[in-house]
Amino acid sequence: MANAEQQDTPLDFPCAFPLKIMGLAGDALALTVLEVVRRHAPDFDGASMETRASSGGKYLSLTCTINATSRAQLDALYRDLSVHPMVKFML
Q: What are the tens digits of pLDDT across the range 69-87?
């Protein structure tokens, strides 16, 4: 029988889970996001972080694909990133 956490999500843990984080362009954004992501997913390889600047160069999109182990882990990670003042939007 699946536990309650598994019933609340269509994901099968562990799984590769991409996080897309957007904020104002600058060196500090990637470092800050990396720090927060590693707090929740210590095995995340920062070298795998994908970056993409907006056409005007004002914004930066970061994609971090983590090895998600639980819904609680994802919820905590989204919570920490979404309230960070450098993060403008998350998917």
A: 999 999 999 999 999 999 9
* Domain coverage including residue 33: 11-90
Alpha helices (H) along 1-91: 4-7, 27-40, 71-82
- Interhelix angle 27-40/71-82, rounded to 10 degrees, is 150
Cα distance between residue 37 and residue 13, in whole Å: 17
The chain-wide mean pLDDT, for the chain, equals 91
Question: Mean pLDDT across the stretch 8-35?
Answer: 93
Instruction: Indicate the residue type of 78.
Output: Y
Q: Is residue 1 part of a domain?
A: no
In contact, 17 and 74? CB cutoff 8 Å: yes
In a domain? residue 57 = yes
Determine phi and psi for 30, rounding to 5 degrees: -60, -40
Number of structural domains (the chain) is 1
Question: What phi and psi values does residue 44 have, to the nearest 5 degrees?
Answer: -65, 130
